[in-house]
Write a structure and sequence with these properties.
heterodimer; A: alpha/beta; Protocatechuate 4,5-dioxygenase, Chain B; eight-stranded mixed β-sheet; 9 helices; B: mainly alpha; LigA_sf (chain B); Extradiol ring-cleavage dioxygenase LigAB LigA subunit domain-containing protein (chain B); Xdiol_dOase_suB (chain A); Extradiol ring-cleavage dioxygenase class III enzyme subunit B domain-containing protein (chain A)
């Protein structure tokens, strides 16, 4: 329950998952150090929150979900949770009982996610989990894979509503849940704009989030999100929505680079 | 709506080309080495037009994106090809 008396998860984080954060071969050391420290803090804060599970909302960079079937959203109900990047893997415990409870709740409340019992998640899960664990996080994970890159994607307002529904499920089930939405901020992998992320747009979004104006983020159209290199902020909308209708960013780390705006933010 | 996007909606006409690029991305090391050893022979297994074949065998990443192949697929293909080329040069110089 939030301060406003509405359903809300115990804690929410959003954060970047760029492989470079893990591979450490492209960005200035001071930028990496700041992001690693922010993720270590996240791991600590999540651990202190005594959660039953952490719902991690991330994506699939067209590894598991090719065009023969592109689910809009998928709840992982198997176990353990395994995520990989360049042959390095992270394995964390799952809570299939809670994941199935969440799936049932969503199906009964106007959402129709796909589900999966076996998949190796990609770096969008691996990078934040790796650094969270380094920070002391030891909590079961419920992954949700959102289609953020292959149009047509879900509207971001729908993603925010998914977050609200996660909060209602947690309240009804009497479980302590946290959320982590990964991705962003502005970046354009694989395009001619790779070295020109929209840093001004990043600052604008961070300022909205500091002021509790997530409504401005979820008012963005699919085209605007694409133009600003922010398609992955759909994952953020889920995590933030689970924390309340207008939660404020409480602790912000933001580091721009020449290819991506890195952020780790607590709500 | 998708036409002017950085990440456009995939064209169904290019499914086979995208499938090839995805297969290369997900191939194990032996599978990818097979492609690098003889790109033309590998590509011939797919039902592609001449331009599509050329884009892949000439490692034309920008051309793939221009054709409408998802930039995420193209860049992951590019990284893998370039890594393999780099490793091949290293081997030769050792």
């Amino acid at each position: 329950m939030s301060d406003a008396g509405e359903p809300a998860v115990e804690i929410a984080f959003v954060g970047s998952h760029a492989p470079q954060i893990f591979l450490e071969r492209q960005d200035p050391p001071e930028v990496l150090a700041a992001i690693h420290q922010a993720y270590a803090r996240m791991g600590q804060r999540i651990q202190e929150s005594n959660l039953d599970a952490l719902v991690v909302i991330a994506l699939d960079h067209i590894h598991n979900h090719f065009y023969n079937l592109v689910p809009t959203m998928t709840v992982f109900t198997g176990g353990p949770v395994v995520a990989a990047l360049n042959q390095k893997t992270v394995e964390v415990p799952a809570r299939p009982d809670l994941a199935n409870g969440l799936l049932d709740h969503l199906l009964a409340h106007d959402f129709d996610p796909a589900w999966s019992q076996k998949t190796v998640l990609d770096h969008s899960f691996m990078v934040p989990l790796h650094f969270g664990i380094k920070g002391g996080m030891d909590v079961p994970v419920i992954p949700i894979i959102l289609n953020t890159y292959v149009p047509p994607q879900p509207e971001i307002t729908r993603c925010f509503k998914l977050g609200r529904e996660i909060a209602r499920w947690a309240q009804n089930a009497g479980v302590r849940i946290g959320t982590l939405g990964t991705g962003g901020m502005s970046h354009y992998p694989g395009t001619h704009r790779y070295h020109n992320p929209d840093i001004a747009a990043d600052h604008e979004v961070v300022s909205w989030l500091r002021n509790g104006e997530v409504d401005k983020l979820v008012a963005m159209s699919a085209k605007e999100l694409d133009e600003k290199g922010m398609t992955e902020l759909r994952n953020w909308a889920v995590a933030i929505g689970a924390r309340g209708t207008a939660p404020k960013a409480r602790h912000v780390t933001y580091e721009p680079t020449d290819h991506c705006g890195y952020a780790v933010i607590e709500f | 709506m998708s036409n002017d996007l950085y990440y456009p909606r995939p064209r169904h006409e290019d499914y086979e080309l995208a499938r090839l690029v995805h297969d290369l991305q997900e191939a194990d090391d032996d599978g990818f080495a097979e492609f690098m050893a003889d790109p033309q022979a590998f590509v011939a297994r797919y039902d592609l037009d001449d331009q599509a074949q050329k884009l892949v065998t000439s490692f034309d990443y920008d051309g793939l994106v221009k054709r409408g192949i998802h930039p995420m697929l193209s860049v992951q293909y590019m990284r893998r090809v370039e890594w393999n080329l780099k490793m091949a040069v290293k081997k030769e110089t050792v």
